[in-house]
Automatic annotation (TrEMBL):
Residues 22-181 form the Glycosyltransferase 2-like domain. PANTHER family: GLYCOSYLTRANSFERASE, GLYCOSYLTRANSFERASE 2-LIKE DOMAIN-CONTAINING PROTEIN. It comes from the Bacteria. This is Glycosyltransferase family 2 protein. Gene3D superfamilies: Spore Coat Polysaccharide Biosynthesis Protein SpsA, Chain A. SUPFAM superfamilies: Nucleotide-diphospho-sugar transferases (SSF53448). InterPro entries: Glyco_trans_2-like (IPR001173), Glycosyltransf_2 (IPR050834), Nucleotide-diphossugar_trans (IPR029044). CDD domains: Glyco_tranf_GTA_type.
Length: 322
């Protein structure tokens, strides 16, 4: 590294005791990484730490990180790619701040987000985690995803997460270190729905608050996992297998909806080879519904999900992460 580790920089008086850590997993993101890191380091605060984990990049990500000179930055390289979740966990472990905000390596924070997060958690010591809205930016333009105005109780929140009613991205998740450690961090073997699965585990024991801000910029690059339909069924099958709630009554139609919609999206965009691959993956799935009842279940599930979304603003409030 060309920068001091945070503890040595603190001893030298170059930075204050960190209040918040921003953890960035990166693999072959040399082009987008400068924008991502600048969106954090542009603040004048010295009580933050930015931790980047280079997850086995084969481009010039490592040399770029080595060229940076900011005492608030730490970085580490994993020689062989271990996946974004393992990189996030390693980044969290390398940091020391009591708050951890996650930021994907092709996304960015808007000015003021770091200050807002620190202030909110100071004022709400009973909240363990916040989820915020975001601006989704792609070649089709910008689309703003806002969270419901009110935060529901924990059981309702779990239902909304299981039914995929809440817009999510890892870059909007901020969590207290104690809560993150208590649930074991991110599942390193899960390639999709990582944020949703983490939040479901957190919601069992800790308070989660919705934020009304949209101060995260989500850039949909060509190689974003969230933008490709390939592997959707395998990712959903793995996610469902980790969530025993789906085996209770009431989620059959929702599972039918979630299963079918991935193949439908690929078909609507003309990716027929992906559709065939997804159908084959569906046949091998261990945790997803099959049979002739799936199609009518898809329509029932879509209707149920729409009804849940419509009812969100009428839910009883807890704390809102302003």
């Amino acid at each position: 590294m060309t920068v001091l580790p945070t503890n040595l920089a603190m001893e030298a008086g170059l930075v204050a005791t960190p209040r918040l850590a921003v953890v960035v997993p990166a693999r072959n993101r040399r082009e987008s990484l400068p924008r991502t890191l600048a969106s954090v380091l542009c603040t004048a605060r010295t009580d933050i730490e930015l931790v980047v984990i280079d997850d086995g990049s084969t481009d010039s990500t490592e040399s770029y990180l080595a060229s940076l000179d900011d005492v608030r930055l730490q970085w580490r390289r994993i020689p062989v790619a271990a996946g974004a979740n393992e990189a996030r966990n390693q980044g969290a472990a390398l940091s020391s701040a009591p708050l951890i905000a996650f930021l994907d390596s092709d996304d960015a924070f808007r000015p003021g987000r770091v200050d807002r997060l620190i202030t909110f958690f100071d004022e709400n010591p009973d909240v363990a985690c916040t989820i915020d809205g975001f601006s989704d930016i792609s070649d089709r333009g910008e689309r703003i995803h806002r969270l419901p105005r009110l935060t529901p109780d924990s059981e309702t929140l779990r239902q909304l997460l299981l039914c995929h009613c809440i817009p999510l991205t890892n870059s909007t998740v901020t969590v207290r270190r104690a809560a993150f450690d208590a649930v074991g961090g991110y599942d390193p073997d899960l390639r999709r729905h990582q944020d949703r699965e983490l939040l479901l585990r957190l919601a069992r024991q800790h308070r989660i608050a919705f934020g009304t801000a949209t101060d995260v910029l989500k850039y949909r690059s060509a190689n974003s996992i969230s933008r490709t339909h390939a592997g959707y069924i395998k990712g959903l099958d793995d996610f469902v297998g980790r969530c025993p709630d789906y085996r209770s009554s009431g989620y059959g139609s929702i599972l039918s909806y979630l299963t079918v919609r991935g193949a439908l999206k690929a078909a609507m965009q003309g990716h027929f080879s992906i559709v065939l691959a997804e159908l084959q993956a569906w046949r091998k799935a261990d945790n997803l519904p099959g049979g002739f009842h799936v199609l009518p279940g898809y329509f029932r599930g879509r209707r149920k999900r729409h009804q849940l979304e419509q009812a969100l603003d009428q839910l009883p409030a807890t704390t809102s992460a302003e």
